[in-house]
Every structure is written in structure tokens, then in C-alpha cells.
């Protein structure tokens, strides 16, 4: 499908290499003016590395990973004999990233409610999905009208996460169902995707990143700092703190768990998932009167139809092994 022979003196065709690397959305122009510069001027990669040093550490890491993948692909297809000064593409150490990472803080629930209430119907439903179901940009943009309608009717939103392939499930809050229903009512019905822009086209999670652009505009107007990915962090933090049920939290988020316990775990009761979602909702509505209180773990088994082992009646039998004569 792609040419396998070298082109020119150590150079290669830009179009031929960009096609197999289109997924990285990075072209060789980010590194040098043309590919011959990389072959004849090894310092070009070092100059590019110095230019990336002005960016944030996480951005540097992602850019270097993409550029490294492109050049490794070039060597594999024999468009280049070798990568000169390969150390220039070496990834940043995790220690450097941790030291430069700012301290994470959690917004006050009141400020978060103010920001969500000020959003337009589409963005409000997306933000509630991020907080209620731990959805990220790709999950929101991939949500279809059919799946959203079923979720509103049943009160549960599940499926396999595209990133990990793990089955996930979350209980929808009344606020989330109302927000999704308002989007469904105004949907033109021309596309299968639930969220459409002003031109009637589906939201895009990459390239333009519709959610991030609209949220950035709202943040500038309201003055409350927030990124969409932080909502997923809130779900993990609050759900784990208030329920201590890490298994149910991971199931809601769709995390890939490689432990042996996950291999033998065949199910997670809906009562446990409901308990986690209600815990996050209780935090979100702090100071607001709610009709449904947080359920205890004991009631999760009753809601799922699982019979627990009855408690022993009367005094507990004495342990003869510890008795002394």
C-alpha cells in the first residue's frame, strides 16, 4: 500500500509518511522545514527539542512521543537510514512532570453548579455527563440519540468504553436525565449523534475539540476555572472518598483492571453503582435539599435482589480454642 524504497539521499516523501502516521495528527513540518534537513543537518531535531521546551511538560511529552513514532516509522520503511541525535526525541522523565504539575484542587460545589447552570443546553448536558458518568470528550461526542433515549427511559447509561473496551455502567441523576431530554427535544433528527453544533454537524472530540472550545468560552465569561477532564477526576475522588467502594468506582469509569480479582469478578451489583453515583450527587448538591438520601451498602444488596447470609440469633458461641483451664 505504501512505498517501501528509499527516496532521494536519505530523505523521504512527506505525503507517503504522513499517511500511515495520520492518526498522530502530526506532520514532519513540526520538526524541520523538510525531511532532507533531518538527514543532512542532525542538529535540526535538537533545535526542535529546544522549541518544545517552551510548552507545558505534558504537551512536550505528547509531542515528543508523536514525533518519535513518525521517525521510527520512517526508519522501518527505509525512508531514512537512521535517526540522527535520537536523544533529542527522548521523553521527559515522570519526575520532571510531577515536579512541574500544579497542585490539584476541587471546585466548591456551589461554583460548579453556577457554571453548569449558566451553560447552554448542549454543554450543560455534556458537563453533567462528565460529572455523573465520568465521561470524557470522546464519550460525549460518540453518544447517539438512540442510546441517550434508552438511558433516559431506563435511568442507566452503560456500554463498552472505546479506550479500554471495558464494560461500564452509571446511574443517571434526575438533573442529567432532564438535561439530556432537553437536548433530545431540540434535536433535528438529521444525524445519529446526540450533540450537534450550530451547523448541524456532530461534535468533534479531536482536532477542533468542540466541548473544550465552548467550555473555555463559558469559563471566560463566568470566571470559574474548569476543564472538562477535571469532572472525571471529581467523580473518582468524591466517589471513592464517600463510599470507599473502589471496585464500583472503577466500573463506572471503565478503568482497565489487570488484577486477578478483576479476572474472577463476574459482576458488580447495581446497588453499589447507584451508591457511588448518589454519593457524587450528594456532594454536587451540597446545601441543596435532596429527596433521595445516600444509601448504605447494606441496602445495595437488597436493591439488587441478592440475599445476604442471616445473622446468628442470640449470643455468639464461645471460642474454646482460647479458653484456659
Spans of 5+ residues with little confidence (pLDDT < 50)?
A: 1-37, 312-317, 319-325
- What is the overall pLDDT average? 79
Note the total helix count. Answer: 16
Largest sheet: 2 strands, antiparallel
Strand order of the largest sheet: 1-2
Helical residue percent band: 40-55%
Note the run of SSEs as H and E.
HHHHHHHHHEEHHHHHHH
What would you call the shape?
globular
Strand content: under 5%
Could you give the distance between the termini?
A: 86 Å
How many strands in all?
Answer: 2
- Helix/strand class: mainly alpha
The rounded Rg comes to: 26 Å
Folded structure, characterized:
- With 325 residues, the protein is mainly alpha-helical.
- Helices cover 50% and strands 3% of the residues.
- It contains 16 helices and two strands.
- Strands 1-2 form a two-stranded antiparallel sheet.
- Strand 1 and strand 2 form a beta hairpin.
- Helix 7 runs antiparallel to helix 10 and helix 15 packs across helix 16.
- The longest helix is centred in the first third of the chain and has 20 residues.
- The chain is globular and about 60 Å long.
- The termini are far apart.
- 27% of the residues are buried.
- The N terminus and C terminus are likely disordered.
Amino acid at each position: 500500500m505504501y512505498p517501501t524504497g528509499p527516496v532521494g539521499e536519505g530523505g523521504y516523501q512527506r505525503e507517503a509518511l504522513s499517511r500511515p502516521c495520520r492518526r498522530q495528527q502530526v506532520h514532519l513540518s513540526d520538526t524541520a522545514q523538510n525531511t532532507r534537513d533531518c538527514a543532512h543537518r542532525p542538529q535540526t531535531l535538537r533545535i526542535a527539542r529546544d522549541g518544545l521546551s517552551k510548552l507545558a511538560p505534558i504537551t512536550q511529552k505528547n509531542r515528543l512521543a508523536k514525533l518519535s513514532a513518525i521517525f521510527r516509522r520512517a526508519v522501518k520503511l527505509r525512508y531514512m537510514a537512521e535517526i540522527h541525535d535520537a536523544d533529542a526525541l527522548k521523553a521527559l522523565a515522570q519526575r520532571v512532570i510531577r515536579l512541574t504539575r500544579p497542585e490539584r484542587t476541587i471546585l466548591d460545589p456551589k461554583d460548579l453548579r453556577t457554571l453548569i447552570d449558566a451553560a447552554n443546553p448542549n454543554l450543560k448536558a455534556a458537563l453533567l455527563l462528565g460529572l455523573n458518568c465520568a465521561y470524557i470528550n470522546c464519550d460525549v461526542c460518540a453518544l447517539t440519540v438512540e442510546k441517550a433515549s434508552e438511558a433516559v427511559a431506563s435511568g442507566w447509561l452503560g456500554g463498552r468504553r472505546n479506550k479500554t473496551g471495558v464494560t461500564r455502567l452509571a446511574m443517571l441523576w434526575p438533573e442529567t436525565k432532564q438535561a439530556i431530554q432537553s437536548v433530545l427535544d431540540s434535536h433535528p433528527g438529521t444525524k445519529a449523534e446526540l450533540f450537534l453544533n450550530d451547523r448541524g454537524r456532530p461534535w468533534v472530540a479531536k482536532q477542533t475539540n468542540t466541548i473544550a472550545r465552548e467550555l473555555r468560552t463559558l469559563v471566560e465569561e463566568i470566571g470559574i476555572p474548569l476543564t472538562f477532564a477535571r469532572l472525571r477526576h471529581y467523580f473518582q475522588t468524591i466517589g471513592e472518598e464517600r463510599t470507599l467502594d473502589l471496585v464500583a468506582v472503577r466500573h463506572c469509569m471503565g478503568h482497565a483492571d489487570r488484577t486477578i480479582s478483576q479476572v474472577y469478578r463476574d459482576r458488580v451489583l447495581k446497588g453499589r453503582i447507584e451508591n457511588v453515583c448518589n454519593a457524587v450527587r450528594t456532594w454536587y448538591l451540597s446545601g441543596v435539599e435532596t429527596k433521595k438520601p445516600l444509601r448504605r451498602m447494606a441496602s445495595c444488596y437488597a436493591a439488587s435482589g441478592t440475599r445476604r447470609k442471616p445473622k446468628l440469633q442470640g449470643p455468639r458461641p464461645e471460642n474454646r480454642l482460647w479458653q484456659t483451664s
